[in-house]
Amino acid sequence: MSNKNNDKTFYQTSMMSALIAGLYQGDFTIGQLLDHGNFGIGTFNDLDGEMIILGDEVYQLTSTGKVHLVDHDITTPFAGVVNFEPTDTVSLIELTKAEFETCLEKDFVANNAINAIRLTGKFSYVKTRTVPAQHRPYPPMVEVVKHQPIAEMTHVSGVMIGFKIPEYMIGINVPGFHFHFISDDRTQGGHVSDFILTEGTAEVEIFKDFHLRMPASQEFDRADLNPDDLKAAIHTTEK
Fold first, then answer.
1. pLDDT digits (tens, 9 = 90+) for 36-74
2. Domains held by the chain: number
3. Which of 100, 175, 178, 193 is the most exposed place for a label (fewest CB within 10 A)?
4. Is the pTM of the predicted complex or chain greater than 0.85?
5. Helices (H), 132-225
6. 30: CB partners within 8 A, 6+ apart
7. CA-to-CA distance for 178 and 50, rounded, in angstroms?
8. 146 φ/ψ angles, rounded to the nearest 5 degrees
9. What was the pLDDT predicted at 19?
10. Residue 113 within a domain
11. Does residue 90 have a pLDDT over 50?
12. Residue 32 sits in which domain range?
């Protein structure tokens, strides 16, 4: 049994390169994931929407625009969590996504560690996208993202959580900043493409311990997790 108060590890199930390879079915439950963290993001079986973990509440942000809590016995093909206890807090006003990331890189994040980030506030604009559920035989992820719905929200309050991952972890995770958003009324959200912050508070915690749990499936064991075009594929699917 994990000690949640003392566990300062970024815990991840499966790898981004496995999603790129079309491995959209997981063998790790949401309940098991919550044993290792109370804050995180990921996806669901069949790539059915985006995941955001806030405490013991796990939300599914679907491509239809619906948001709902999920049962803890369902499984995930890819997710990362931490026990979040921010060590740095800063109040911010009137920033674009690019300006926000520049601000964090200047004063708060560690480029060669894993950074957990929460941005709570009012946004004049948030642009998200959410992958629709896929069906076997699964298409490659670079094809899936060509058909993902885009949502644009204006004058919305909510919370944006995610991570900044080091460049050397490409394939294991997604290098750079990666955020999911959910509105305060829990009715809309998704993978963040862009935003303009009106006013808010950013909180950061740096993690230097990392645990990767690999799926037990033969499909995972046989997949090509280091294709020649991995970097380009991740850029296409996430950026």
1. 999 999 999 999 999 999 999 999 999 998 999 999 999
2. 1
3. 193
4. yes
5. 141-144, 218-222
6. 58, 70, 71, 72, 73, 74, 75, 76
7. 12
8. -70, -15
9. 95
10. yes
11. yes
12. 9-238
